[in-house]
């Protein structure tokens, strides 16, 4: 065999080894990328959880039918007492549709009242309707000082029977409370004594929701119900049935349960008895 043929074969073998090496390297790199990165390069988030958001401190909100001061405070991460103080709203903390609730340093306003009167002209006998609008003063509200926290209510009980399928997340990205799986229509119970301050479906992501005020510091929330069995202003006792478990606002039957201390979510498992 001539030296020329031997050299050609050596070059061919070297080329084959180079191609195989490149293909092997590319395959290993692809496998590593698939194992270390989520599909499509997008971080996967549990869509059944209610994402935490920081309290809103700018802008304003116009009250709609069905809103309460407590539901607005709950939605935007406020302590209801601080939000009432910022907007000069006193007891019994009633708000009306069209009223402006502000989150910044300005005072909120109620809808402008309109008064009408009819004036008859002596000369012509014609009638003229005069419309008078009450002037609404715009003033700057002083940001309220932090209010002292009261003691936690005693006698907490579990809001439903079932398997715990979601736990509280303190990093602000996933779950503000806990999730309990159960059967459609099973009882949802008040976790402690208190007063119902919201019963409706106006808060996105919670479905049919009940909020109970236990003290000036603590409220609890019960979401995704099929049917609500209490009304706003009703007094409830621990263990009392307040709703039927459902799947409104989510994709499976479960109860989403939260406890908030001065408007901030806290881990319900720190309050509920061990089981």
Automatic annotation (TrEMBL):
InterPro entries cross-referenced by the UniProt entry: Cell_wall_metabolism_enzyme, Dup_hybrid_motif, LysM, LysM_dom_sf, M23ase_b-sheet_dom
| Keywords in alphabetical order | Lipoprotein
Q: What cellular component terms from Gene Ontology apply here?
A: cell division site; cell outer membrane
Recorded GO MF terms: metalloendopeptidase activity
Q: Which domain of life is it from?
A: Bacteria
Q: Which residues form the LysM domain?
A: 59-103
Q: Which family does it belong to?
A: Belongs to the E.coli NlpD/Haemophilus LppB family.
Instruction: Give the protein's recorded name.
Output: Lipoprotein NlpD/LppB homolog
- What is the protein's species of origin? Pseudomonas lundensis
């Amino acid at each position: 065999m001539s030296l020329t043929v031997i050299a050609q074969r050596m070059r061919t073998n070297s080329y084959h080894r180079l191609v195989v090496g490149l293909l092997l390297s590319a395959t290993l790199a692809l496998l590593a990328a698939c194992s270390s990165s989520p599909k499509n390069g997008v971080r996967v988030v549990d869509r059944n959880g209610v994402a935490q958001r920081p309290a809103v401190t700018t802008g304003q909100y116009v009250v709609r039918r069905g809103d309460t001061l407590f539901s607005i405070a709950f939605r935007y991460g406020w302590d209801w007492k601080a939000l009432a103080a910022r907007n000069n709203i006193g007891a019994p903390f009633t708000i009306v549709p069209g009223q402006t609730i502000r989150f910044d340093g300005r005072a909120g306003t109620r809808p402008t009242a309109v008064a009408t009167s009819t004036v008859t002209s002596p000369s012509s006998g014609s009638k003229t309707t005069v419309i008078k609008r009450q002037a609404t003063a715009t003033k700057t509200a002083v940001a309220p000082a932090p209010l002292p926290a009261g003691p936690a209510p005693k006698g907490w009980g579990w809001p439903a029977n079932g398997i715990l399928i979601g736990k509280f997340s303190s990093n602000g990205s996933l779950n503000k409370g806990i999730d309990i799986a159960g059967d459609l229509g099973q009882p949802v119970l008040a976790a402690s004594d208190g007063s119902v301050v919201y019963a409706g479906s106006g808060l996105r992501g919670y479905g049919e929701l009940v909020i109970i005020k236990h003290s000036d510091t603590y409220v609890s929330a019960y979401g995704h119900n099929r049917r609500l069995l209490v009304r706003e202003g009703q007094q409830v006792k621990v263990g009392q049935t307040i709703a039927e478990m459902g799947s409104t606002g989510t994709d499976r039957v479960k109860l989403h349960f939260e406890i908030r201390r001065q408007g901030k979510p806290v881990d319900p498992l720190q309050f509920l008895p061990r089981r």
